[in-house]
Structure formats: C-alpha cells, structure tokens
Amino acid sequence: MRIEFLGAAHTVTGSCYLLEAGAHKLLVDCGMFQGSKRIRQLNTDGFRFNPAEIDCLLLTHAHIDHCGLIPKLCREGFKGPVYATKVTCELAHIMLPDSAHIQESDAEIFNRKGARSGDEPIQPLYTIDDAEASLKHFSVVPYENRVRINENVEAVFHDAGHIMGSAIIEVYVTENDETTKLVFSGDLGQPNQPIIKDPTIINGADYLFVESTYGDRLHQIYDKEEALAEIVNDTMERGGNLIIPSFAVGRTQTLLYYFYKLWKAGRIEDVPIILDSPLAIAATRIFIHNTQEFDDEALGLLLEHAQEEKDQEYCYAPSGFPGLETALGVMLTDLYHTGKLSLQEIIEKMTWAPAKVFDLQAGSLAKGMPADITVIDPELCWTVDEKKFYTKGSHSPFIGRELKGKAVMTLVDGNIVMQDGIING
Ligand SMILES: [Zn+2]
C-alpha cells in the first residue's frame, strides 16, 4: 500500500490522495486549487499520475476544492466510476457545469485581453461538455454501507456533517491477508449545524487523514440566530436592503433556514428574500428534495410546517424555506394544477414575485403543464424565440444556451409567467 498527498498539502484546496493497493490505484477526491495565481497554476500543471491508470475515485463531497478537477481527470483518460453519496452526486451535477462555465469565460476574457497584446490564446481548464461527460462516471453509494471497490479495497461512507451529502470515508485495504483501515475525514462539520446531521463518530483507524482548513483557530461561540436577527431588524428599521454574499452550497441554505426560524418565531418581519444566484437556487432545490438528510430539528420544523399547510390550504414556505420566490413559484404552480388556486388568486399571491411575464400564445397551459420549455430563474432575463428560451445573466452557467426539459410555468391572463425549472439538456 502506498499513499501520496497530491493536494491540500501546504495549502487548503485541491484535495487529492492517490492510494495504491495491490495492483489498483484509486483517488480520494480530485479537487481544484483555489486562491492565488501561483496556487491556481497547479490546476493547469499536469496530474502527477496517469489518469488512465486510476481505477476509481472516492469523493467526500461536492465542494469544488474536492471535486473540481474531475472533468479534467475524465478528459485526460480516467474511465472508472466516481463513488459518492446521493446528494453529492446531485450537487456535482450543478457544481461541475457551473465551474466549467467559469473556466470557459475566464479563458475567453484572458484571450480577449491577450489578443490585444499579442499573447498566445489559452484553452479553458475544461469545458461544459467535459463537465457533462464526467457526470456519467458518478455512481451513488449509500451511507453506512460497506461497498466492495475491488479485491483489495472496501469503503464505507459516513455523514461528515459539513454540507449535505458530505462524507467521511473509511477505506479498508487488504493486502497479503492483512487489512488496514484508513479514514479520510473530508471536510468535517461542526456539531449542531442547522439542517444537516452531525458528523458520525468513527471508531478507530490505523491511519487518519484529516482536513484542517480551520485547524489553527477556535470557532467563536455566540448566538448566531440572535446576531442575524439584530442585523436584519436594524437594516429594516433604517429602510435598507440587506445584501449577503454567501457560498452557494451549504452557507446559503443555512441562512435561509435561520431566516425561516426567525420569521416563524416573529423575531424578524415578513420580508421578501431574493436568492440572486442560479447555482444557489439549484442547490437549495436539491436540499429541499433530500429531507432524508435533515436532522431532527429541521425535520420537526418541516412536519410542523406541513401541518400548517394542511390547515391553511396554501403556504408561502414550501419545505420550510420562506420567502423564496422560486420555491413560491413552484408551489403556486402546483396549487394551480391541483385546482386549489385560480389564476386570479395566483396573480394576487404573486405580487412580490419578480417573475417576468411574456406575451406568448396562450395555448400551452390550457393544454396542460409541464411543457417542453424550461427557464431557470426569474432573476435572469430571457429572450424568447417561439418555444426556445435563452438565458442571459452575468453568473448563469446557462448563458445563451437553449433550455429544454420540464417547464414550471403559470398562465396569467394569457401570458406565461415562468418561475423556475430544471435544466435538462
Ligand atoms: Zn468543503
């Protein structure tokens, strides 16, 4: 057995271990280096192994510094499976194309500037096509199941409590009838994080590989909900808008959850919350659809909410995330289809939803939804060409791309209002 540290060593990004066991070579994580130009250069430098010789990859979680080089790995010859939990696989389906989009636009900007000064054009680190091709390698592994990877290696994924889907991976390597237990922590969450479960306690290991991004400092202990309530109320009292930059996966959903709890307890007012990021919206949807990963508190809130929903007939906070226009849109559309709301009522409920309304031939909704059109996000603007919709927006990974799939749309007074949808092609 041999282990090589190929990333997140002397730096905190680019997580990647190469494990050789018997005749097999496998990777744990294949993350992107993020940070200074010198660090990012490591992404462009070749892999220090031949990707075609790697049998498989075990992925701890969907953050880009752990999975961001998978498209490049696949493009350079990796043919094996990428084992990850269900939610990690789902999140990778939005994270990797998004990352590819950033690579493409960075290269384009660089080349545009470079052309003026006569520089050689560069290729993007990988393209959206590379990212999409790499997603075919993903294979779901359930938590707490001992999975045979090959004749030398078995693995168990445990909840790491870091982001939804994150895992601590136990790897059992057997060589010459002797088994060695390796534990790869991945990024570890703190206990009592909102929404997700606490990290699993692992019993023993022969070798432990711990990520230590914040290993050199102590987390502040304070009442986060109280601090957030104070900031919101203070801003609202002064008539302001609160703008919160936030990581799209994990931190954003944590904030939405806190807002929900504060709103429900009457500690903040009923103010609209605009989530201005296609990636964060897509990630939130994945969170909402994976309630099996909720901790007891989040599940309790959800059940309570479901009961209220029953009592009130409709609600503003599907799955416990209030004030979220996209979620509201989906909810309203559902209510229309189940006949619980009339079009007039939808219009009334949509007073503060920033969905755009288009003049389109009225027929589709009457014939039944969903149609074969998808739009992602009301915050983006669209151009409409018959039944094809194109997005434009500064951050969207889907800029200028034709969107297909199932539409989530509502017909209001002969116009089609699109709130949200799923990228599907
Ligand atoms: Zn992480």
Please characterize this protein's 3D structure.
By secondary structure, the protein is an alpha/beta fold. The protein folds into three domains: 2-209, Metallo-beta-lactamase, Chain A (4-Layer Sandwich), CATH 3.60.15; 222-323, Rossmann fold, CATH 3.40.50.10890; 326-425, no CATH class. Helices cover 33% and strands 18% of the residues. β7 and β8 (153-159) form a beta hairpin. The longest helix is centred in the N-terminal third of the chain and has 32 residues, at 86-117. It is globular. Zinc ion is lined by residues 61, 63, 66, 162, 187.
CATH topology of the largest domain: Metallo-beta-lactamase, Chain A
Strand order of the largest sheet: 1-2-3-4-5-6
CATH architecture of the largest domain: 4-Layer Sandwich
Helix content: 25-40%
Low-confidence parts lasting 5 or more residues at pLDDT below 50? Answer: 309-334, 346-425
Q: Structural class per helix/strand content?
A: alpha/beta
| SSE sequence, one letter per element | EEEHEHHEHHEEEEEEHHHHHHEHEEEE
Major beta-sheet overview: 6 strands, mixed
- How many DSSP E strands? 16
The CATH C-level name of the largest domain is: Alpha Beta
Give the percentage of residues in beta strands.
15-25%
Number of helices: 12
The shape is globular
The radius of gyration over CA amounts to: 23 Å
Q: What is the typical, i.e. mean, pLDDT?
A: 75
Small molecules bound in the structure, each named once: zinc ion
